[in-house]
């Protein structure tokens, strides 16, 4: 009986989580004239919406490229800064270390919407509106606290004897970090990279506020401004198709690397 209830609970959670994505995928493969039908599967199956998304008038390919640039650069910069900061907090002894750690975590508590107006005024003054850096720098400030927190926990649970043994063998602290600690911390770094990339890829508010040029907008903003392939048709089907295109790569990456992601998250939480 307990097993049945367990599977029933898991099935209910799966249905609850996957139902919106399932309906989005089904709607994406309906014909534009069948968009409001309620059949569980598209009949007939159609690729019209998928083809419409990539028409030159829509410019969705450029938006995907912009999302890839913003999410990719944000992830790389977050890892470079986050790994160094987390290692320092986990291993080095310096004054006010706990205060610095508390301040880093406190920055993640600010609601993003409250920072938009001052950021918008600042970026307007320095000419950053409609640039990649106007989306990357704010995303970096939101991603770094989580990355530092996750990586600090990961570095703390690694034995300090590993570095000490390497230093006895002649390595400097920097060489011990680069040659010994960093390879062993790969699961935590990989998990942080995946989480940061997904968060930056799905970011919407900052990209919507900092960019008003259609050639610089990211995929999430482009979907919200979809007018359809011809400007006057119902954009529901093409929006669903664009949503599938944006979501599927992330789902595939998470499914492929789910073991590494779970290993990285649990390793950082176990002493």
CATH superfamily: MetI-like
> Quick one: biggest sheet?
none
Q: How would you describe the shape?
A: globular
Specify the oligomeric state. single chain
Number of helices: 13
Membrane topology: Multi-pass membrane protein
Transmembrane segments: 7-25, 64-87, 99-123, 135-155, 176-201, 236-257
Main location: membrane
InterPro entries: BP-dep_ABC_trans_perm, MetI-like, MetI-like_sf
Question: Could you explain the architecture of this structure?
Answer:
By secondary structure, the protein is mainly alpha-helical. The protein has one domain: MetI-like fold, CATH 1.10.3720. The protein has 13 helices and no strands. The protein has helices at residues 2-28, 48-53, 60-91, 97-107, 112-125, 133-156, 161-168, 173-184, 186-202, 205-210, 219-224, 236-256, 258-269. Helix 3 (60-91) packs parallel to helix 6, helix 3 runs antiparallel to helix 9 (186-202) and helix 7 crosses helix 8 (173-184). The longest helix has 32 residues, at 60-91.
Keywords:
271 residues, mainly alpha, MetI-like fold, 0% strand, globular, transport
Helix and strand arrangement:
Blueprint: H1 2-28, H2 48-53, H3 60-91, H4 97-107, H5 112-125, H6 133-156, H7 161-168, H8 173-184, H9 186-202, H10 205-210, H11 219-224, H12 236-256, H13 258-269
Kindly summarize this structure in a few lines:
The chain is mostly helical and 271 residues long.
């Amino acid at each position: 009986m307990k097993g049945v209830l367990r599977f029933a609970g898991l099935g209910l959670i799966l249905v609850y989580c996957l139902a919106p994505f399932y309906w989005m995928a089904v709607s994406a493969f309906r014909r534009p004239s069948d968009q409001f039908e309620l059949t569980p599967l598209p009949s007939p199956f159609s690729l019209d919406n998928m083809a419409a998304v990539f028409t030159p008038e829509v410019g969705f390919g450029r938006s995907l490229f912009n999302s890839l640039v913003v999410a990719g650069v944000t992830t790389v910069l977050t890892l470079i800064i986050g790994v160094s900061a987390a290692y320092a907090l986990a291993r080095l002894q310096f004054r006010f270390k706990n205060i610095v750690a508390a301040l880093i975590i406190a920055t993640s508590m600010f609601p993003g919407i409250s920072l938009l107006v001052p950021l918008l005024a600042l970026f307007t003054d320095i000419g950053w509106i409609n640039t990649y850096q106007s989306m990357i720098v704010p995303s970096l400030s939101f991603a770094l606290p989580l990355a530092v927190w996750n990586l600090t926990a990961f570095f703390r649970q690694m034995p300090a004897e590993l570095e000490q043994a390497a230093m006895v063998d002649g390595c400097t602290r920097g060489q011990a970090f680069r040659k010994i600690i960093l390879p062993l911390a790969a699961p935590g770094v990989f998990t942080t990279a995946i989480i940061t990339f997904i968060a930056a890829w799905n970011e919407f508010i900052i990209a919507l506020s900092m960019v008003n040029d259609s050639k610089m907008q990211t995929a999430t903003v482009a979907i919200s401004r979809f007018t359809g392939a011809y400007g006057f048709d119902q954009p529901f089907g093409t929006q669903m198709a664009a949503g599938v295109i944006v979501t599927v790569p992330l789902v595939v990456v998470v499914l492929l690397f789910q073991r590494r992601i779970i290993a990285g998250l649990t390793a950082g939480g176990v002493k």
